[in-house]
Amino acid sequence: MATGRTHRPATRSRGIPEATVARLPLYLRALTALSERSVPTVSSEELAAAAGVNSAKLRKDFSYLGSYGTRGVGYDVEYLVYQISRELGLTQDWPVVIVGIGNLGAALANYGGFASRGFRVAALIDADPSMAGKPVAGIPVQHTDDLEMIIEENGVSIGVIATPAGAAQQVCDRLVAAGVTSILNFAPTVLSVPDGVDVRKVDLSIELQILAFHEQRKAGEETPGEGGADTTPPAAPPAAAVRRRGEGTEPGPDGDVPAVMPA
Amino acid sequence: MATGRTHRPATRSRGIPEATVARLPLYLRALTALSERSVPTVSSEELAAAAGVNSAKLRKDFSYLGSYGTRGVGYDVEYLVYQISRELGLTQDWPVVIVGIGNLGAALANYGGFASRGFRVAALIDADPSMAGKPVAGIPVQHTDDLEMIIEENGVSIGVIATPAGAAQQVCDRLVAAGVTSILNFAPTVLSVPDGVDVRKVDLSIELQILAFHEQRKAGEETPGEGGADTTPPAAPPAAAVRRRGEGTEPGPDGDVPAVMPA
DNA sequence: ATGTCTTTGTGAACGCGTGCACAAAGACGG
DNA sequence: CCGTCTTTGTGCACGCGTTCACAAAGACAT
After folding, report:
1. B-contacting residues of A 124-143, CB under 8 Å?
2. Least buried of A61, B67, B187, B201, by fewest C-beta within 10 Å?
3. Could you report the per-residue pLDDT of A89-139, keeping only the tens digit for each?
4. Contacts with B, A 1-30, CB within 8 Å
5. Which domains does chain B possess?
6. What predicted TM-score, i.e. pTM, was given to this entire model?
7. Amino acid B188 CA to nucleotide D27 C1' distance, rounded Å
């Protein structure tokens, strides 16, 4: 029974909390910028501001890595860049394949942020035969048929899926079977993978939907009486489920918006 | 002093926890798929599996919305689709502008996931004059000069930034000044915005770096003695900071990997 | 060497999110 | 109408992550 889990509890076993790991790239980016400006040291306060986090949180994060940093002075920028890079595994070369060279795949292939951080686009793969050989971002697109061979020959362990949703799981299975153990998924689907394989997903429309939620809440609070909702009043709820939360008993969270709203 | 905060504590004020809001789009997607297959009802167990989450978590999430669902049967798919859509504010139309029509911007403009969920690309904006008028995804690109006018005329409250990092803050400031209150940022920078403006960021390279971390850990644990790290042994740490965590006192977390490793 | 002043590193408290486990609700069959 | 069986809704406990607040550490001046 495929559980479809996303393999969350992976880090706790050895020191560094997941939340901290997720912030390390943020610090690294800020530090790199400082390094380019030849700034020798930063205080936790300054660096925290640059990374957009709380300074206490930053210090605690760094404390998991060890005691780099000098009291009364701050952190040595170059040294910290190295330590974080090493911790993240960016001191080694990571060959990456991108599968699905549509608009998004092409954008990813051209994205400079990859190459600059130890990631190397080893191959671009697409199922469309007419794409084969066509160079994107200077790299010739290869056909899906050769996926396994490409993975193996280049020792790829990280794969990026930028295919349509329908093809994602199939591509994922092939990547995993070929030896990929980390997947960055841009397709709007839940991928199910065996244990030991990490999946991170980026869903563009989900982010927008979350924004819409907050946006609606803002609008609804400032102008009460103007909520939105102008589509047809959906399918009739199953008779039994009409009873909403604590009807008649509790006051209701905020005067429950009726199912059908005035236009 | 620009704090650069990302405006986190926004939802708690009214019921639904942020973590739940972030999962609603996931449920919605799964439900939509079921709806298209004309499935009338689902149990929390089934839906949870489809969405890739724990069933208890799903039930608790839904309990924040109210008591939709029938014990012994499950949830009415159509009804739930409507309730979640309404809660997320997707029953109304959200005009969106995309600023920065490079590879990524074009990919976003073409991305079907937007239009299908109540989001409408109202305009594409780019600073390059040679792009002006050129249609991308059927929409003519407009010049940055007209940004304020476009925002105002279309009543845009959500903006997507897909510019290079250097231009992001400036674009952000203009968007906010023109009335945008929600921003989806793809540029690798920390945006600072006034209170009341929501920012969500998507950073492609950060996701890869997190994967690399886990990947390195996997590799390091299975084959101890083969870690990686082959670059020069960084800048010399400031003399005082050389002392690492509990040297001589504590045993060390896991035998601190030496700075220079054998190839 | 001693004192002062800055900044780190962290102990402790708190709050949120997660997951278990179970009682209550209701469908369904007899 | 009653009993059984399924599935929801949620009280509770636990663990992670965040934040505060402060003692210890060291730079730097005298």
Report:
1. none
2. B67
3. 999 999 999 999 999 999 999 988 888 788 999 999 999 999 999 999 999
4. 3-6, 10-11, 14-15, 21-22, 24-26, 28-30
5. 18-87 (1.10.10.10), 94-205 (3.40.50.720)
6. 0.85
7. 35
